[in-house]
Amino acid sequence: MSGNLSTAGVEQTLKDFWVSRPRRPHEGRKVAGVAAGIAERYQIDPVIVRVAFVAMALCNGAGILIYLLGWLFLPQEGDETSAAEALVGRGRSSTPAPLTVLLGLAVLPASGLFVDGGFTMVGGLLLSVGAIYALHRGRGALNRPAPSPEVNPVDPADAQTTRVTPPAWDPLGAAPFAWDLPEPTPTTPPVPVTPARPRRKSRVGGATFGLALVVLAGSMVAAGYSDWFTAPHVIGLVVATLGLGMLVGAFRGGGGKGLMGLVVPLSVAGVVMTTVDFPEWSESDRYGDVSVRPTAVVDVRQKYDSNIGTVDVDLTGLPASGTVKTAVEIGLGEARVIVPENADVVAVCHADMGAVTCLDKRADGKGPTERVTDNGADGEGGLKIELDVKAGMGEVVVSRG
């Protein structure tokens, strides 16, 4: 497909992206040439691509994961295939096999950031994939890599076979020395073919997809200011945007049908999040990361919690006296609490499944629980802190800072 990709469906666009994916160049690269290859393929400034990778890396590592995948699955200039495909024998790549294995191993902890990164990383990945998809639809016809030449092998036995019957142009067999010449081209004039009038494609699908990305990005920003923007609510906003686009496309001649491939899985995810209850994990209504650093005893809340993500509570900014009691809960992810060096701490740390580090005690597996009473380096006296830190599936860490 080398024509106008802006009129192609989702499946066609994805297939064409894979066939004509960027090649990592030898010149102009900073690390592995992923950003330079994308910029060269789509004829844009490489600085823009690198800035985008840095921005996505700030989304709890989403840009790092995308870059590693590009290193593995984008062929280097002059290679037959990518490093990952060459590792399983599907072509030749100049990337050494040990380096490919190391990159594959590096993807595993980067993918594990889904637990620690929470909604921020998932949103960053969705934005990255959406940006690449939109870029290929709009500029995929530019600077397409040349296809690999196909070589049709010839059987030597066939090449040396001598013809024993005369061709049609020599029915009497008067010129056997010229029988190997090709048959003359027929002189019948070709029948003119009237090209079919191309059907005008609706632009509703592309416009709706872009609007859905804007809604997703805006919701991610708003989530830092309002607790209403939980994962189910954001998914509902995106699905509503896509559904509105499909409705508009239906009135304009059937445009936007390709959006169904996004609406169905997002709708299923939203239904699961709003109907499935995990009472043993967390009773919170929040999804995403929580990070606080109170500086006064009265600022400490009774409870900090989230269903998925990271809850990070830093108590090192509190004064050297007073009494604090708080609970920290996470359904899936990590709960971290940092206490002052000299505070008197009584902590109960528990995880239904995962690992627990409670000051100087550590346990992991199924249902690890640690109870710690530690008065700090200066002994008893000063700020008193009582903690109850829990995780459904993940890690609990209580440390001094």
Task: Write up this protein.
The chain is of the alpha/beta class and 401 residues long. 38% of the residues lie in helices and 19% in strands. The chain has ten helices and seven strands. Strands 1, 2, 3, 4, 5, 6 and 7 form a seven-stranded mixed β-sheet that branches. The longest helix is centred in the first third of the chain and has 43 residues, at 97-139. The radius of gyration is 31 Å and the shape is elongated. It starts with 9 loop residues before the first helix and ends with a strand. The relative contact order is 0.08.
Spans of at least 5 consecutive residues whose pLDDT stays below 50 are 149-161, 276-282
Secondary-structure-derived class = alpha/beta
- The global form is elongated
Radius of gyration: 31 Å
**What is the element string, with H for helices and E for strands?**
HHHHHHHHHHEEEEEEE
Share in helix: 25-40%
Note the total helix count. Answer: 10
> How many strand units?
7
Largest sheet: 7 strands, mixed
Q: How much beta, percentage-wise? A: 15-25%
Mean pLDDT metric: 78
Distance between the termini: 58 Å
